[in-house]
Design a protein that fits this description.
Elements: H1 6-11, H2 13-45, H3 50-65, H4 68-82, E1 99-100, E2 104-108, E3 112-113, E4 116-123, E5 126-134, E6 136-137, H5 138-141, H6 145-150, E7 154-156, E8 161-162, H7 163-166, E9 174-180, E10 186-193, H8 200-208, E11 218-220, E12 236-242, E13 250-259
Parallel strand pairs: 1-7, 2-13
Antiparallel strand pairs: 3-6, 4-5, 4-11, 5-7, 5-8, 9-10, 9-12, 12-13
Helix pairs in contact: 2-3
């Protein structure tokens, strides 16, 4: 079939197999649970006790009278927020040596891509803001998100601003990223304002609870949606954080080099 990537299918086969087993397990649990709920509800509908019949009738009417998509939305979006131990967003620690302000980075594999974020940097009791790119191995992300983050450098802008100087206009700050195949012609990749992300206070509370951001910590915010929803693996990436009424945007630009899969005679070991 023209255009079909069989190598990619082979690569994700373990994940597909695991997903199939999970699906079968969920199907089995659903059948057992559904039978149990149906049996109990049927018994309750004919119970001589009025309050049992009323509760059963209310349950049936709500389930039957509510579109399934609404039920899924409520379960997926609202219930987790009521759980005391829910962690949204999720945070993963990566090695400090991955942080860089370089204009060139090296990665393993041809399925890595950047994504624009803002970064909070705690230094000597103050918090600074930078623009960042969380380069990630998208192929490995299918198996382990933390390890996929660990495989690629995290690029920061060389310029930073003090958080206290821009917090009053935070929601109006914009994040943009562009990608290029040749470093000459650039295409919009991401575009949003920081209103779409957690504000710095919420971000720090999510990562550290009631504690302050520890000195020497760099905390990335999470990213914004892609313009067209399609992940692209191009070798040039640049991003901007534009602050209203601020003279110069925070910028970063870098190129991605893919290391060879096969050892070479002149390679450093």
């Amino acid at each position: 079939m023209a255009g079909f990537d069989f190598d990619f299918l082979v690569g994700i086969y373990p994940a597909l197999l695991q997903a199939t087993l999970v699906t079968l397990a969920l199907t089995g649990v659903s059948l057992i649970a559904g039978f149990g709920i149906g049996f109990f509800t049927g018994w309750a509908r004919v119970s001589p006790r009025f309050w049992i019949r009323a509760a059963s009738t209310a349950y049936v009417e709500v389930v039957r009278g509510t579109p399934l998509v609404v039920q899924i939305f409520v379960i997926y979006s609202m219930f987790p927020a009521l759980l005391p131990d829910a962690r949204v967003p999720a945070f993963w620690a990566v090695s400090r040596w991955l942080l860089t302000t370089a204009g060139d980075i090296e990665v393993q594999g041809d399925r890595t891509s950047g994504e624009v974020e803002y970064a909070l940097i705690a230094h000597e009791g103050r918090t600074f803001v930078a623009v960042a790119s969380d380069q990630t191995d998208r192929h490995f992300e299918q198996y382990s998100i933390p390890r996929s983050k660990q495989l690629c450098p995290k690029v920061l802008s060389r310029e930073v601003v003090v958080l206290d100087e821009v917090i009053d206009r935070w929601d109006g700050i914009s994040l943009t990223s562009e990608i290029s195949a040749d470093g000459q012609i650039w295409h919009d990749y991401q575009r949003a304002t920081l209103e779409a992300l957690l504000d710095p206070g919420a971000l720090v509370r999510g990562a550290c609870g009631d504690e302050a951001l520890p000195d020497g910590t760099v905390l990335l915010s999470g990213t914004v949606p892609l313009v067209d929803g399609v992940t692209r693996y191009l070798p040039h990436f640049r991003a901007e954080l534009v602050i209203p009424h601020f003279a110069t945007p925070l910028r970063l630009t870098y190129s991605v080099s893919i290391l060879p899969d096969e050892p070479s005679e002149d390679a450093t070991t």
